[in-house]
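ok so i was messing around last nite and threw this chain in just to see what happens. nothing serious, just curious
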Amino acid sequence: MWTAAILPTLILSLPQGEPDATADRAATANRLTYLDQSGPYSVGRHFPKLTTPQWVGEDGVDAVVILAIDDLSDNIPKYEGYLRPILDSLKQIEDGRAPVSIMTNRVDPESPQVAEWLAEGVSMEVHTLDHPCPLLDGGDIGPASKTYHGCVDLMHRIPGNLPVAFRMPCCDSINSPSPRFYRELFEGRSEAQHFLTIDSSVCVVLTPDDPDLPRGLVVDPDGTPRFRKYLPDDTFINWVEDYPYPYLINRLCWEFPCMVPSDWEAQNLLGENNAKTIEDWTRALDAAVIKQGVFTMVFHPHGWIAPEQVVEFIQYASRTYGNRVRFLNFGEAQARIDANLLGGQSVRDRFGRDNGVRLIDLDGDGFLDVLLGDGGPRLTKLWRPAGRRWELRPLPTSLIMHEGAERPTSVRFAVLDPGGPPAMIGGEGPVKHCWVFDRDRWALADDRIRGLPVDIGGVRFRDLDGDGRCEAILANRDRGLSEVNGVYRWSEGGSSWEKLPFGLPPGAWTIGLQRLDSGLRFLDLDGDGIANDLVFSDEESYGAYAFADLERGWSNVLRSGKAGDPDAILPIVLGFGQDNGFFTKDGAMFWVNEETAESPGHAVRLPLDELKRVDRE
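result:
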């Protein structure tokens, strides 16, 4: 039986008391909705884990450390002088290797020093050509694309280097990352048709609320949280809590979150080269080992932390944990994920497209399992944490449609019964099927889709009334006002899906023209603990509606109108489904894009409690 205690923190709500049983049932039923759209902040302490033993491929290793130094820009002697004691220290514990990733702006691809670094185990990664802070600025995404993709191509020109990772400039000090970047730039390809697979720009904060961690690791002697104090200011929102694991952003990007504090955050609070920084780094490493996670370090050769202090951290890791901690660079981490987690596949195919990889906790044990649908053998991989091993099962269908350039998803995931297992609905061909994950394998259950529209691309499954069972919501803009569009509920008496007497509000679509993002998002706007309310906005119209019940639907209008109204909600999507940098966090909606750089915190913020209906004459 699934419980809400192990669910992803996907509900964004107004301040309220403890959720009741109805909200718990809805959270359990909606635990798979992140598979439809997962942004950079969709994980947290309750999200299923992807621990180091699941992907590192080495017995006895509990945690990985990635040392990633920023800002190399034609100043190689400075970096060689700073890194040399660090590289030599790593060689002593990593069999002669010196795994460090250098997040680079500009460098001569033919530099002999770069070639020497590569031979020692260093990887040269991407940090934009020009280091703009923020990257998205000036009302035009073009310069951001040029400096990002140009740096991707430059790193590929270095002989023997295969860049895989990006770090956003100033990600530890300002809100420079944005969903717009991940969707519109990271998922694209450069002029030379190159692309990356890892980002390391979201910060992770370890907190006293994590039940896995001893209080002494996450609390200072005065009783205050050890790590939260390093966040730059109250406007800084580029962080997740208690999730030091790799996770996927929008299916195509592995996020390796940066451990708080970075050396900049530490010197900003404590001053340069402070011994307290090393103390807190070692406590964060202790926590990463307990949680079997990853410690991704952000540091610079700018006088904020001395190289001898980084060596002290390395020696602490070796002395305290020995072979339980492995130092890797980003390229090595990616190679191990592909080999040991994904069976030799990757989340992106050779053209950079969706390769049919999905991470999902199938059995409710709190650990992510893996579905491999399209890049090789179709497999279901079940993680057995007690034995630290994978078990393989067949996967009965492809997960993407092999048509056109975008390769849209061919299945949707849902919970069809209260407390029940995941169901997978769809399939690549014209005839759709349903499989339920029962007794560690996928069982065909086509009787569970009787009466359900076959438009799998447009349907979204979500528990609207908190009974623990998903409804099916369909409003495909390509179909217009088709009678098929509507909301469907499973009827036990009729053993089929039945259409309810309401649909989405005017202007709201589950999928836009040509299968693109319509700008619809489900949130908790009325504070009942259920993410069944909705917000939508594009360059034509907007709306915010609270859900009433299965008779009246979204009849509670909080705000609606045309784009350009004085109180209009900013577009969630632009043009044909382009991401406008929208996300939700801490009781508010945010936009971070090239138009928001002058706003407080480089973001536009709209608190949810301000979403009220505005009466007009």
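not much to say yet. The CA atoms of residues 379 and 394 lie 5 Å apart.
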